[in-house]
Amino acid sequence: MNLLIAISLSYLLGSIPFSFILAKVLGNADLRKVGSGNIGATNLARVFGYKIGAIGLLLDISKGIIPVILLADLTVSSLNTSLNSIRLILGLTSICGHNWTIFLKFKGGKGIATSFGVLIGLAIKNILIAKVIVILAFIWLITLLIFKYVSLASIISALFLPMFLYIFGLERIFVYFGIIIALFAIFRHKSNIARMLQHKEHRFNIKSKFLSLKKKALS
Fold first, then answer.
1. Closest CA to 41 of 74, 7, 64
2. Where does the pLDDT of residue 209 fall: very low under 50, low under 70, confident under 90, or very high at 90 and above?
3. 96 inside domain
4. Which of 71, 169, 170, 207 could form a disulfide with 174 if both were Cys (CB 3.0 to 4.6 A apart)?
5. In a 10 Å sphere around its CB, with 0-12 CB exposed, 13-18 middle and 19+ buried, how is residue 107 labelled?
6. Are residue 177 and residue 155 in the same domain, yes or no?
């Protein structure tokens, strides 16, 4: 497969607004007009519950995995580009598709789930990245438990990504990839950062969610 074709397919796959589609199908709701106004899985969960949100999350993650483990291996470049470079290019293209989807006038999600999918795809090929993912997941969880902001947990984890890629001795191109992901995370969460500074950002009440799940399990 030609690299240009692979990039186009990766962008189109990333552009599929799965959570937006699920909201339309399940409740004829426009995620841009309810909840936080974001078309991602977090807002889907906020509006339709965490089971539906989990489906949207898994679909968004898959948009990052597929280009890295499937499209990249089918791609042939005439530019003497390494396979790792192709994987990162296609991964970033998919994230761009999610963030700026062609199907919704280039107004997409935050890109965290799809970025996580890209990292999973890379980890399948490189055990060191798998270790980085485990550390970032721990940082994400600890940040969420302390501050109760999903957005802040995502931003902090993304900021640590290039640092750990460097610490684990991965190629420079991976570190550069991590820096781009971190910049994307900050840029896409500008409105969340503003709401946090104003103490208006939605908090994730872990205790309340746990008690709610326990009550459902016992009923």
1. 64
2. low
3. no
4. 170
5. middle
6. yes
Confidence bin at 121 (pLDDT 50/70/90): very high
Query: Is 109 contained in some domain?
Result: yes
Residue 71 in any domain: the answer is: yes
Residue 87 sits at the vertex; the CA angle it makes with 82 and 89, to the nearest 5 degrees, is 95
**What's the pLDDT band for 204 if we cut at 50, 70, 90?**
confident
In three-state form (DSSP H/G/I as H, E/B as E, the rest C), the secondary structure along 160-219 is: HHHHHHHHCCCCHHHHHHHHHHHHHHHHHCHHHHHHHHCCCCCCCCHHHHHHHHHHHHHC
Domain membership flag for residue 50: yes
Q: In angstroms, rounded to a whole number, what is the distance separating the alpha carbons of residues 43 and 31? A: 7
Tokens representing 138 are 């721990």
The count of structural domains within the chain is: 2
pTM for the whole thing? 0.91
- Owning domain of residue 165: 128-219
Structure tokens at 172: 């420079």
Which residues are within 8 A (CB) of 184 and not within 5 positions of it... i.e. 6 or more apart? 95, 99, 111, 115, 158
Please name which of 118, 115, 131, 111 lies closest in space to residue 71, comparing C-alpha atoms.
118
**Does 112 share its domain with 144?**
no
Using one digit for the tens of pLDDT, what is the confidence trace for 36-93?
A: 889 999 999 989 988 999 999 999 999 999 999 999 989 877 667 889 999 999 999 9
